[in-house]
Amino acid sequence: MAIPKKTKSYLDKKMAKYDELSHKTVYTAYDAAQTLRRELKDIAKSLLIAADKAYIIAVVPANMRLDLGKLKKALKAKKVSIPKEKVMVKVFKVKPGAITAFGGLHKVDVWVDRGLLKTKDVIIAAGSFTDSVRMKAKDFIDLEQAKLASFTQSGGYKLQVKPKKKKTTKKKATRKAAKRKTTKKKPVKKTVKRRITKKKK
User: Fold this and answer.
1) Which CATH number goes with the domain that contains 71?
2) What is the pLDDT of residue 180?
3) Does the predicted TM-score (pTM) go above 0.85?
4) Rounded Cα distance, 189 and 77, in Å
């Protein structure tokens, strides 16, 4: 599959350098990282923010978490919040969760957390759940004329590693099972047959 025509047209008109990435359906930055086998810091998480009476797109690396307090300070806004999903549908005409980091496409300003500069190439959702684009982080910032600030904190997504099974737990379980079996056994009654001898007359 190809990236949405609207996104492709926008990037081509801007003469942006990018690679198209098709993948299975993903709904979160965490899923994208696992599917594309990339580190979380390489995935750009796009968040629609209501700042006073305007909207902006905040872009943060997926291994970090947005700090609304820090963003409010950076924006010099009186109030910041994450709007409801229906706003994406009514105002921006996109499906919930399908908004891209390309603010120019949605006609809003883009704010990028400085943490995104730690990665060379960044993966950005292309406006669908099955397509993304890869481009240099610096090129993305220049393309969007994004404003840089620090508005994240640690505690974002973490790739889970399956813990190794401990052999000791199995041994304990078998011992407990053996004890249960021994307690359930009923004692067997032994019957002793006695011979009856007749007395001689």
Assistant:
1) 3.90.960.10
2) 57
3) no
4) 87
